[in-house]
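Need tokens for this chain, all 181 residues.
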Amino acid sequence: TKIWQNFLGRIPFVSSPNYTPDVTAIIIEKYKMGESLEDIADLTGKTVTSIRGKLVSEKVYSQFKMQRMNAIQKRTFDDGTVLSQLELKAGQEYRFDDLLAYLNKAGYLRVNRSCEMGYYSVHGGVVTIHPFGCSNSISIDYFGDTVEAITDDLEKTVLLTVVIEPFSPSEYDAGEAFNSD
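Here are the structure tokens for all 181 residues:
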């Protein structure tokens, strides 16, 4: 035991970062709006791990994930709207922010790099998404609020249209989609 005490005494422990009520409110608001933890970390200067810990300690992280999952499974939200598929066509006017809002409502999770079904990423005016039920990820290029091009990332082919399906428990294992703790 003396060896362990000696060893542990040499490890520098970092105290958890202080969160003011204002920073906590910003983190919670941004998370509920669907911002990625990485983007929130960039904004607040905190680490992703400490932000996740703060969201867990505030009982927001799992509570919000469960609310989203339940709503997505029902495809009906508190405001009474029913979630349906979204079809985008090259050349179509569809607000960039509306696409991100739809993806968040439809059960997609924002990450830095999209590679698995149910995830999406944003880099400049390009949204890369791996839609539920599709074998490949799709890139949607925007110019302003116009869908400029849609590309199948694996086959490198240009598509005229893409249909984005919301989360469906029958098509995808819910535990896998929401197990990002």
